[in-house]
Amino acid sequence: MSKKVAFGTKPTPSAPPASLDDLVRSRSEVAQQEPAANEATAEGTRRLSLDLQISLHTKVKMHCVQNGLLMADYVRGLIIQDLAKK
After folding, report:
1. Nearest 5°: phi and psi at 24?
2. What is the tens place of the pLDDT at every residue in 52-86?
């Protein structure tokens, strides 16, 4: 008995940018969409790991998905907001 696997068609590569200026412009648009990554590299970062109850993790994850946020950005924002109060 042999297993048969069907593969779809080979994806076609996207057209390369017309010029280097177009490539740089497209990369700068991506960089503007990811401000948290740019802010973190200016100062350096440290990793924080924490344990959450499954139900709390699910609520946070759902909130982030519904609002188009990364969980790390959301938690980072909460920490910044809390520390700004003090």
Report:
1. -65, -40
2. 999 999 999 999 999 999 999 999 999 999 999 97
Q: Report yes or no: 72 and 36 within 8 Å, Cβ to Cβ.
A: yes
How far is the CA of 1 from the CAs of 4, 5, 6, 7, in angstroms? Answer: 10, 13, 16, 19
Lookup result for tokens 């959450």? 52
Q: Which domains does the chain have, with CATH numbers?
A: 20-85 (1.10.1220)
φ, ψ of residue 79 to 5 degrees: the values are -65, -45
- Determine the Cα–Cα distance for residues 75 and 49; give it in Å rounded to an integer: 11
pTM across the whole model: 0.52
